[in-house]
Amino acid sequence: GRTWTGVKDLCAEMKDKRVLIRGAAQVIRPVSKKMAFLVLRQSMSTVQCVLVVSKDIVSPQMVRFATSLSKESIVDVEGVISVPNDPIKGTTQQVEIQVRKLYCVNRAVPNLPFNIEDASRSETEFKKAEESGEQLVRVGQDTRLNHRVLDLRTPANHAIFGIQSQVEKVFRQFLESEGFRGIHTPKLIAGSSEGGAAVFKLDYKGQPACLAQSPQLHKQMTICGGFGRVFEVGPVFRAEDSYTHRHLCEFVGLDVEMEIKEHYFEVCDIVDRLFVAMFNHLNKNCSKELESINRQYPFQPLKYLPETLRLTYDEGIQMLKEAGVEIEPMGDLNTEAEKKLGKLVSDKYNTDFYILTRYPLGIRPFYTMPCYDDPAYSNSFDVFIRGEEIISGAQRIHLPDLLTERAEKCGIDVNTISSYIDSFKYGAPPHGGFGVGLERVVMLFCGLNNIRKSSLFPRDPQRLTP
Ligand code: 4AD
């Protein structure tokens, strides 16, 4: 086969070299009958290709053919690298390709729903354009999502999903290095795993069933099976009724479950070291991606400490009270209060990432272990980035009688989870774990304003396609 060069690798050191590249035709600019420019894009990189009529190399027909291409068509170009004296505007690579051969591999339809350049602009660009009286096309979120494959071609989107892939990689690598085993639990289950009505019900060969709201029950059952430390990366289904910036009906869950020797803070220790390692990795290895996201959606880099701050729920409530926020005693924090607390913590402790522990038992799922010293509270925690929840976790009840009692109290039909409860009858160690929303981590690390931006093909109460 021939040797192909990646657009991102084209550089001035390759001057006069002959290269072969493939890309999507982002810009097609005729200059005259004898000259045309073509900007080809590959992932986050673009390069300018120049066609100039010259005897035996580039014919006028070839220039005509190039200018007749439709935007986004897939094109192969063979040519020689040149380095112009002036900087090239509008491309990432600062070299040009003097075209010798050009093939159209697949032609795109002439009328695209939107241009990739339009879909790649930042708010700042729009504001500048407005001031100077220039007209730019704004591409709205629904239009983007309706034509997601086109939208995915923008540099910011390549960067977002590059980051997502790295988050998953660090999650697996870190946990494997700490002795955790990757598992896959069933997604078709008999009853709700988190309680509440947010389940997709279905008919399982005549039996009522539902899509798993989390791997919760089965990941705990692997601990009953003697697997001391487990993790899972898999789909989670929530029949959410709320149409918000941070809820999806299907998301990717990063789950962890582990034996606890002495204290549920052992689980918080894993959260702490895992996420500090992850943030360090992203900042060190993904600077191109972060820059690219920043260009379209400007954000402040995440502030985090080498050792993650832990506050108790009561300390959080106290901070809110002192700031004049009214909170229902022992109640759940609403989105606004969480945001406000995030801001207070950020100002006081200089971190956008922290763990809130010791929640009231009444606002946690049935399987949560009550505090030994005060059963009004629980051995549980949530984790926040920029004042929004990315994780909830806890020690679980490993005593079958207490588990049954708590499930009944929380209105769960214990018959649907009897195999789960029975699992604890054969001697199960104390254990705990946590669940992370992958899309939330990426959204909040990158300061994005909507979870649909960090979900490839988002599923929300109003969207099942594409
Ligand atoms: O807080 P949740 O519901 O907790 C559980 O599922 C527990 N089984 C976890 C555990 O091990 N104790 O979900 C965990 C995380 C949330 O913190 C959030 O990041 C994400 O999953 N999440 C959602 N992400 C997108 N859309 C939704 N509808 C989400 N619901 C939860």
UniProtKB/TrEMBL annotation:
The keyword ATP-binding applies. Its EC number is 6.1.1.12. The keyword Aminoacyl-tRNA synthetase applies. It is found in: Cytoplasm. Keywords: Aminoacyl-tRNA synthetase, ATP-binding, Cytoplasm, Ligase, Nucleotide-binding, Protein biosynthesis. Residues 163-466 form the Aminoacyl-transfer RNA synthetases class-II family profile domain. It catalyses: tRNA(Asp) + L-aspartate + ATP = L-aspartyl-tRNA(Asp) + AMP + diphosphate. GO terms for biological process: aspartyl-tRNA aminoacylation. GO terms for cellular component: aminoacyl-tRNA synthetase multienzyme complex; cytosol. GO terms for molecular function: aspartate-tRNA ligase activity; ATP binding; RNA binding. Belongs to the class-II aminoacyl-tRNA synthetase family. Type 2 subfamily. This is aspartate--tRNA ligase. The chain holds residues 99 to 564 of 564 of the full protein.
